[in-house]
Amino acid sequence: MTKPDLLMLTPMRPLVEAALEPHATLHRLWEAQDRDALLAEVGPRVRGIVSFVASCPRTLIEKLPALEIIATSAVGYDGIDVKAAAERGVVVTNTPDVLTDEVADLTIGLLLATIREIPRAERYLRGGHWPEAPYRLTATLRGRTVGIIGLGRIGKAIAQRLEGFDVAIAYHGRRQQADVTYSYYPTLTGMAQAVDTLIAITPGGAETRHMVNKETFEALGPDGIFINVARGSVVDQEALIAALKNGTILAAGLDVYDNEPHVPAELIALENAVLLPHVASASGHTRDAMAQLAVDNVMAWLKGEPPLTPVPETPWPHAKRPV
């Protein structure tokens, strides 16, 4: 029986190719000298896309008339045109849950690094300044109120960890959740006024673009700490830079940016910003778990079974079929 054709958009963990090659013909788009020529040749046969975080626009989907599944090895899928996929009956899968703990752990680390100025203090020591004078006193997590933007799986895991620090916790989202006791704010500005620390962990996309903006930072105030482990698009980056420069807020810790991997020089130059290169889920253990779930989704589809984690916009539409 002929093996189905799968298009890989990006390099992935070695286990992905090892698991899929016995069952499918893999076409590695990033290796093609002429990507358009490759798509013209194999596009009509491609039934599935597999990728790490990558752009999958309508224009690509339309070049693949036999496409049935897009499996991404990430929890965020705002780079995939799910509307175009849904119109074609193409299921999109992501990898929720398996990265929850890793991202939550990193978020707490980034929060502490930002408030206690850990990278800046280390640079002070390495620069030989300690013999001259002790490092300055920093802000503290003690007595703070933390507002979480997006209390989903990861947001709840972050909140659970924060409980151990004995801080007050609030959240903002589309609706109040009956199963949590944290304070709920129906507007982001209202929550920003009530807290002194904001953590963004909401999905990206058009609905949340620049939801954190100048008004948010003004409401947060001069003792405010902002942490972003969501998507760069969630924040008005220019407004954030201005807020950090002029003291509208105290500091920010960022793992995501508007135009990754390009970070504005203005942001890099700021001492009151702790900057990470989008590494929240980037441990070998967790990236392997994410890759394995992507493989499991594809293998279920190959068997004609429902994929394990389809995104809400594209539920599994097909009846069981022979392969």
Short précis:
This protein is of the alpha/beta class. 34% of the residues lie in helices and 15% in strands.
Widest sheet: strand ordering: 8-7-6-9-10-11-12
Please give the largest β-sheet: 7 strands, parallel
Total helical elements: 12
Alpha carbon gap, first and last residue: 9 Å
- DSSP E strands, number: 12
Q: What would the principal axes of the Cα set say about the shape?
A: elongated
The structure class reads: alpha/beta
| CATH class term of the largest domain | Alpha Beta
Integer count of domains: 2
Topology order in helix (H) and strand (E) letters: EHEHEHEHEHHEHEEHEHEHEHEH
For the record, what is the CATH homologous superfamily label of the largest domain? NAD(P)-binding Rossmann-like Domain
Helix content: 25-40%
Radius of gyration: 22 Å
CATH architectural designation of the largest domain: 3-Layer(aba) Sandwich
- Mean pLDDT across the residues is 95
CATH fold field value of the largest domain: Rossmann fold
The share of residues in extended strands comes to 15-25%
Low-confidence stretches: 319-323
Describe the structure.
The chain is of the alpha/beta class. It folds into 2 domains: 5-96 and 285-302, 3-Layer(aba) Sandwich (Rossmann fold), CATH 3.40.50; 100-275, Rossmann fold. The protein has helices at 14-20, 35-42, 58-62, 82-88, 100-115, 118-126, 153-163, 188-194, 214-220, 237-246, 265-268, 284-302, and strands spanning 5-8, 25-28, 46-51, 69-72, 91-93, 145-149, 168-172, 183-185, 197-200, 225-228, 251-254, 273-275. The strands form 2 sheets. Strands 8-7-6-9-10-11-12 form a 7-stranded parallel beta sheet. It has a 5-stranded parallel beta sheet with strand order 2-1-3-4-5, sandwiched between helices. The longest helix has 19 residues, at 284-302. The radius of gyration is 22 Å and the shape is elongated. The model is unreliable at 319-323 (pLDDT under 50).
